[in-house]
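Reopening this ticket.

The earlier resolution said the output was attached, but the attachment link was broken on my side. Pasting everything inline this time so it's all in one place.
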Amino acid sequence: MKALLQRVSAASIVVGNDVVAEIGKGMLIFLGVEKGDTMSDLEYLARKLCSIRIFDSEYGKMNLSVTDVSGEVLLVSQFTLAADCRKGNRPSFDRAEIPVKAEEMYLEMAKKLRKEGIRLAEGRFGAHMKVHILNDGPVTILLDSAKG
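Inline output:
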């Protein structure tokens, strides 16, 4: 399971002409579920996402978590994180979990983040979304449960 996170000043999701989710200061998390991912992968990433220190302290060092700064999280399903680009020029998505199972894991991640008291907004699973990002830093980090 992979999570690509970005520290943002603001982010929103548009589906069609409608804004379906938006946050202010916090993290945008793209979540990619791969075949073979388990609840232990999900739990590892949930703990890491809640505690990773990517926000500046009063001393200008990245030493605070999203919960420390009362930040918000925008969670977006992103099967393309499972892309394999080693052969040819067209990515293979064979590693991506089937949609039914991926959605279950995505919803479980949302549940776990909310349980930690994080104000969470969500993209629309399986929809074509336009993601508006005001990246702060920029700070972009890839977490992979397989690499711990």
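Reporter confirms the inline version is readable. The chain has two helices and eight strands. The radius of gyration is 15 Å.
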